[in-house]
């Protein structure tokens, strides 16, 4: 993660991976398979399209044999086009606060695959793209992850 989010170095990120890694951002099916394809994805799309203020807060980490599962919250201001996160959406300058889950598999101490999940309905709501009254929460869906006494069942009539 340091290579991607701090160093912003595609080659450093790829150096942590197997010969045929896979990245899937599950809600929007972005990513790549294979070292060179993934290097290009990181170099040309993911890293340059990352907002300057992006921040991640780790909530939980589960470690198993050849696998790590992280639950975390990402916060950023949507100031740049982010084809990897919201394809086709121009910057909205809106604040986004969104829980994620990453399932990271390893082979021989290298990353074999990353499957990253988030609630795209919440993302679209926070981006201002969902205008109907739908059973979707925005950034407040993070509140109960951070405070078990936060309000619950707000969508139930």
Automatic annotation (TrEMBL):
Residues 3-112 form the SnoaL-like domain. InterPro entries: Cyclase_SnoaL-like, NTF2-like_dom_sf, SnoaL-like. Transmembrane segments: none annotated. Gene3D superfamilies: 3.10.450.50. This is Nuclear transport factor 2 family protein. It comes from Microbulbifer epialgicus.
